[in-house]
Amino acid sequence: MGNFDLFTENLLLRNLSQSTIKSYCSQISLVSKTLKKDIDLIDENDLRTLIVKGKARNLSSSTQMSIINAFKAYFKEIHGRKFNHEILPRPKVEQKQPDILSIQEFQIILDSIVNLKHRTIVCLMYSAGLRVSEVINLELKDIDSKNNKINIRNGKGKIDRVVMLDNSILYLMRNYWEQYKTKKYLIEGAKGDVYSAKSIQQIVKNAVKKVGIDKKISSHSLRHSCFTQLIKNGTDLRTVQKLAGHKNINTTANYIRLIDNDVLGTISPINSIKI
Q: Is 218 contained in some domain?
């Protein structure tokens, strides 16, 4: 087994997500090809030359950071050493504030969606702050209708958590299930398998385009909108951290920047939505 294969295997054993593993391997392969140098011979000086003076100097700070993170992981897993940031410091990544939807804007989007499955998906994401991966992997057994909660298993970072299940969403889900009669997953593909993540992204994209909302809204924006609205409604930061599944509360605190100072009440954002 070569070092690159061993690296991939080690990342799998560490329970990193497939998207992270794919990103790391892609960045490492691309750098090796660009430098025309064997992966195991690349060091921080090579990366510094590439990023500071070479072809990667015009890349965004986040992309440069992705390259560094990939090799940082490779050095640790294969060479058993730490990345030397004295040679190549971390680039300053500009924190762009994501666009979020107001309650009124989400209502407009929801009203434009006729398909019951699509309505259920977007309401789940907005009401509980679910990621696309969490929606498509949500099994019927994870839904606790008696206690109005949803058990999220193996979320990002392999974190299990419990999220709220509003009565209006429970009612919508029951209507959806009566029509589709899914067997394992709440939202199933055509063959009863996992639903397509790209399909969910397209559902949101099409709905936003249809109603003409002039914002950069993605499926993940529904999650941002949920937690921003919760904080705006007065939910404390620790509670939002648990609902979001954030390891670091500073990640949760970023949502504070997206709201005004008119913090009131403590209610779910879906309570203001006509389902």
A: yes
Residues 121 and 164 occupy one common structural domain: yes
> Along the 275 residues of the chain, how does pLDDT read in single tens digits?
689 899 999 898 887 878 889 999 999 999 999 999 999 999 999 999 988 877 677 788 888 899 999 999 999 999 999 999 889 888 876 666 778 999 999 999 999 999 999 999 999 999 999 999 999 999 999 999 999 999 998 777 778 899 989 999 999 999 999 999 999 999 999 888 999 999 999 999 999 999 999 999 999 999 999 999 999 888 889 999 999 999 888 888 888 776 654 433 445 677 777 77
* Residue 85 domain-assigned (yes or no): no
B/e letters for 102-127, b = 16+ CB within 10 Å, e = fewer, are ebebbebbbeebeeebbbbbbbbbbb
**Which domain does 268 fall in, by range?**
103-272
The token pair at 169 is: 């969403």
| % helix, strand, coil for the chain, step of 5 | 60, 5, 35
**Whether residues 140 and 241 fall in one domain:** yes
- Catalogue the active-site residues: 131, 156, 220, 223, 246, 255
How buried is 156 (Cβ within 10 angstroms: 0-12 exposed, 13-18 middle, 19+ buried)?
Answer: middle
Whether 202 is covered by a domain: the verdict is: yes
